[in-house]
Design goal:
The chain has 223 residues and is mostly helical. The protein folds into two domains: 83 residues, Alpha Horseshoe (Serine Threonine Protein Phosphatase 5, Tetratricopeptide repeat); 123 residues, no CATH class. The chain is built from nine helices and two strands; from the N terminus they run H-H-H-H-H-H-H-H-E-E-H. Helix 1 packs antiparallel against helix 2 and helix 6 runs parallel beside helix 8.
């Protein structure tokens, strides 16, 4: 048996014994050793990696794993899990549509704020509270200005990205804190939220390469 298969088998064993911490280490080794030419096997490893990450409370990372698995094999279990737990913004599904909107708006602007810091991370709790309060205040104003419930997700995605929030700066800015401009060079046009993602996943851009990092990822710092 190949080493990666052995690690994969052990990972499933520890996962069945409710030891996701050990399973995670085994799955990392299996993922590193699985040949990229074996798409179906690679997608299975990514499926179980997502299950393990979710059990560890890392839902955003689980979505990233299932997203990678769905790119490798669109008919895989990873693709089905992604469809079940991901919302229309490409983030973790929330109990209500309004909470989905808030999560997306918050992540977009928290991402912009953090990318303006040399540390690429939030510092004190006071800073976190200040930034959260400013973003929440702007979201509530936006919700009063527009009937968000009557807009489709693509329209809200563009609206959220178009909002400018002026944050107080207590640190030197990075050279550029702007979001990158995504372009499909094959089709020679700028990517729109509802466009099929250029990576080949078959999903809308805003759910795939254009999604904002998950809030938990941002709170722990961007790499």
């Amino acid at each position: 048996m190949d080493d990666w298969k052995r690690e994969f088998s052990r990972a499933k064993y520890y996962l069945s014994r409710h030891r996701p911490d050990i399973a995670l280490k085994k799955l990392e080794k299996a993922l590193a050793g699985c040949p990229v030419s074996r798409a179906r096997d690679l997608a299975r490893v990514l499926f179980f990696l997502g299950i393990t990450l979710r059990k560890l409370g890392l839902s955003d990372s689980a979505l990233k794993s299932w997203s990678a698995g769905s790119r490798v094999d669109r008919s895989s279990s990873a693709a089905r899990m992604l469809k079940r737990f991901q919302n229309e913004y490409g983030m973790k599904r929330q109990p209500t549509r309004d909470q989905d909107d808030w999560q997306a708006f918050f992540a977009i602007h928290l991402n912009r704020y953090i990318r303006g810091k040399s540390s690429l991370a939030l510092g004190t709790l006071a800073e976190r509270d200040m930034v959260t309060d400013l973003i929440r205040e702007r979201f509530l104003l936006l919700r009063n200005e527009y009937a968000l419930e009557h807009l489709d997700t693509g329209a809200k995605y563009r609206l959220f990205h178009g909002v400018i929030i002026v944050f107080p700066r207590f640190f030197p800015d990075r050279p550029s804190s702007e979001q990158p401009i995504w372009v499909d060079f094959n089709k020679k046009h700028r990517m729109l939220p509802d466009d099929t993602c250029f990576c080949g996943s078959g999903r809308p851009f805003m759910q795939c390469c254009g999604r904002a990092p998950g809030v938990s990822e941002l709170m722990n710092g961007l790499l």
